[in-house]
Amino acid sequence: MNYENFLELVKKRRSIRRFKPDPIPDEYVDRIIEAARWAPSGFNSQPWEFVVIKDKKLKDDVMRIIRPPRPAGASGFSKLEDMCEPWMRQKRQPWLDPEMEYQNAPALILLFGDTRTQLGLPMVVRCDPHIKQSIYLSSLANAFLYMHLAATTLGLASQWVSSVASPYNHCLLKNLLHIPNEMEVYDMIALGYPAYKSRPKLMRPLDKMVHRDYFSEEDFRTDEEVRDFIKKTRAWVFANHRRGADKNMVG
Q: Which H or E run contains 53?
């Protein structure tokens, strides 16, 4: 693969939150995990374990943990968002097509980390809790990114479901899936065929984030510039979260 093909792959990889119900081949799941296991890891510790869930009942059990039913209009996410700084708040909008939310993705892959692998790190790392944890998490992040890139090459859509790692969900999922105490939930990927075309991604200009040799004062973004970007990107993200699979998006 040359650089241009690689860059095209990176640009094509997008978080998709609406999936078609069509099942995906087991071979595709195996290929995604095969790519992930080649990811770089600290001291080649390879701390990852993968739990693949395609069974409908078990998927529903997972979703009941991370997306419990709520009374109409009730949302912990929305209530917390109401507490953020007024200048960045977004007008609350309804989801357009809840029947195609990620809970209907035909496959889920939970990525777990085996904490015991940290014993294999160099002593200078093991004696520094911050560096040890950073290397462990970075290793898992590498594998997780490889999963998303591999899914993209197969024509699949993927989404991060980071809520699985919250303390409450973490404990319930480990109990549901019989996961040993030594294992930790890192993240979950929802997989399926995309139900819509992603819109162009909002990106910061390259020349505004690259600094040659030194970070000069005039290169540093002002607070106003940072806030302006935050407002724009939050509006972009919320629009992508709620958008429906209308005739202009379905591919």
A: strand 48-53
**pLDDT tens digits, residue range 147-195?**
999 999 999 999 999 999 999 999 999 999 999 999 999 999 999 999 8
For residues 195 and 142, what is the distance between their CA atoms, to the nearest angstrom?
A: 27
Beta-strand runs (E) in 144-240: 157-160, 183-192
Terminal Cα distance for the chain, rounded: 26
Mind listing the pLDDT tens digit for each residue in 204-224? 999 888 888 888 777 788 999
Kindly state the average pLDDT of the residues 123-129: 95
* The two three-digit tokens of residue 159, written as one number: 């989404």
Hey, is 202 helix, strand or coil? coil
pTM, two decimals, is 0.88
CA separation, residue 73 to residues 81, 93, 102, 168, 243 (Å)? 14, 11, 20, 22, 18
Question: Residue 113's closest CA among 32, 182, 36?
Answer: 182
How confident is the model at residue 83, as a pLDDT? Answer: 86
Report which residue type is found at 36. Answer: A
Maximum pairwise Cα distance, the chain: 57
Q: In a 10 Å sphere around its CB, with 0-12 CB exposed, 13-18 middle and 19+ buried, how is residue 79 labelled?
A: exposed
Residues comprising the chain, all counted: 251
Distance CA 206, CA 210 (A): 6
Can you give the residue ranges of every domain in the chain? Answer: 3-242
Per the rule left: phi > 0, alpha: psi between -120 and 50, beta: everything else, 127 is alpha
Q: Return the CATH number of the domain spanning residue range 3-242.
A: 3.40.109.10
Any idea what the Cα angle at residue 21 is, between residues 188 and 24, rounded to 5°? Answer: 65
